[in-house]
Amino acid sequence: MSIKVYVPLDSGSVALGADDVATAIAQKATTAGADVKVVRNGSFGMYWLEPMVEVETSHGRVAYGPVTPEDVDALFAADFLTGGEHKLYLGRTENIPFLKSQTRLTFQRCGFIDPVSLEDYRAYDGLTGLKNALEMTDEQIVQSVTDSGLRGRGGAGFPTGIKWKTVRDAPADQKYIVCNADEGDSGTFADRMIMEGEPFVLIEGMIIAGLATGATKGYVYTRSEYPAAIRIMNEAIEVARANGVLGDNILGSGKTFDMEVRMGAGAYVCGEETSLLNSMEGKRGVVRAKPPLPALEGFMGRPTVVNNVISLCSVPVILEKGADYYRDFGMGRSRGTIPIQIAGNVKHGGLYEVGFGLTLGEIVEQIGGGTATGRPIKAVQVGGPLGAYFPKELFDTPFDYEEFAKRDGLIGHAGVVVFDDTVDLMKQARFAMEFCAIESCGKCTPCRIGSIRGTEVVDKLTRGEDPELQIELLTDLCNTMKFGSLCALGGFTPYPVMSALTHFPDDFKPHALDIAAE
Ligand SMILES: Cc1cc2nc3c(=O)[nH]c(=O)nc-3n(C[C@H](O)[C@H](O)[C@H](O)COP(=O)(O)O)c2cc1C
Ligand code: SF4
User: Fold this and answer.
1) Which of 110, 150, 154, 191 has the largest count of CB atoms under 10 Å?
2) Tell me: the pLDDT tens digits for 397-426?
3) What is the pTM of this model?
4) Does the residue 517 lie in any domain?
């Protein structure tokens, strides 16, 4: 029997040379006469070890990494096909501390399986949640998701069960499930990783959402910058259709659900759910005023569930193991697990899924291992471009929606971006305003005009023009944007700006101004 060698195919690993490594291994196996089958799997999300190559040995899957094509000859010489010793040897995959210390519920199969093999997915208990859901009434499914305490992972943390109930209770001839896979937040990649590494879990989650709400059609709206995710999702949808998982007779139940992938043209604001719906309808990506809620009048004016990829991918395990099982993880009103994405200037960047409640300090210092540069951490931005900058003094904040809100921060899509002591927070504040100005949909004045005035005020600070007045103006402007904007793009831009000003006032003093004036 062939020896299975796993080389990840996800975009992160490919960017680090995984395709060349896979080719080099296949070629060397041919010349060495070794019976090797190279399997392209998803990434486990330990990006500092990618491309991480694994071998299926008699004592389990063992890993080597990061591997370059130049290492391949030496790996063969070291007998890596039987798990031989080599300087890149990492031991059994499941025992790598970064992976072993996680609670992988949503990402439980990502990395272990060939992403488009339904056989692999079933072998790792895939589709069990769907099978259970098919035995339940729509009301019971909604109740189970409500009881699990699952909250939207796209940013707002809205209870998923309540959203589903609204759609379920809305009378309509047609309802829709729209998966928000726009993933625009800086430092985030969980949606991409799971679509590339375990697409069937998203398909399963969307079918369950359809059964719960009466929707028979689903769309995955994703960004054009994710070509591999689009390709893999499309392939998986074809496989699911061919095997009776999607279509008019889901697993022989007589129930119907089908789905397709739609590609966005690339605008941060198109991740906002109403703007996304406009974009899907072929209109300009402009935010719609609410009400009506998308749950009542969404895609094509019909009741629509709009959920993030990770929210939907968390549903199968809830239906598989029960609401209580999921709810037992976490703290306070933040239940279950959260796939944290650790990025920026950090030693061990990657995806870390764990129950809510770790402190920010534990995440960046212990799990992330501190900065990649080895310099002290100065600030951590949590929650994407609209998230606050947290200083070291706030590292005791637990990863929890309410705890972050109490400290004027947000979890968002759980992206954590680390900065060392060379970062200039006044520059970052300007960047936040500039980002908002560029990405604003233009519908409301506080965001459209306020963000431009904001960059001008920071520029005046940079030039040292009447600093006290500028700081007063900036604070006032942030209040106007926070309370007067129609959506969270204008409404949350004050978070990075004000946190920078509050926690790093020295960066706003004249000594730092010449740096910002570059
Ligand atoms: C400017 C802006 C950008 C957003 N981008 C995304 C995004 O990329 N992905 C996402 O899931 N939600 C995004 N959201 C949140 C969505 O509007 C919406 O709350 C979410 O898709 C609902 O799904 P959930 O309940 O599963 O989180 C964004 C919101 C705003 C205001
Ligand atoms: S806050 Fe900005 S992005 Fe949101 S509706 Fe207003 S102008 Fe558009």
Assistant:
1) 191
2) 999 999 999 999 999 999 999 999 999 999
3) 0.97
4) no
